[in-house]
Design goal:
This protein is mostly helical and 106 residues long. It has helices at residues 2-13, 17-30, 35-47, 51-64, 69-79, 98-105. It has a single domain, classed as Alpha Horseshoe (Serine Threonine Protein Phosphatase 5, Tetratricopeptide repeat).
Amino acid sequence: MDDKISEVKEMIQSKYYKECEALISSLMLESPHSALPHNLMGILLEKQGRHEEAMRHFRAAYALDPQYEPAEKNMENLGSFVMRHECDYGENFCIPSEQTAVQEKR
């Protein structure tokens, strides 16, 4: 599944949103009880500015697996007034955003 995470991340960064949505949808069909595809869909939607829909997918990921930390971190991040981190793709940590790094240095 790590190869799929990398592929989704690359597609989002390249702004291939339709193709990425199709890939994530196929992952949801393949693994309907997995939190990962919902987390990835949430990231995709957040990057498109579709925040409410993104939050629904982060919540779905959390409901499927409350121990899945990326979904919890992404919900907290999206729910804050200032984005503190880049979205967590499931690689064990969030990357601080440039804005947060500047604020933390002050």
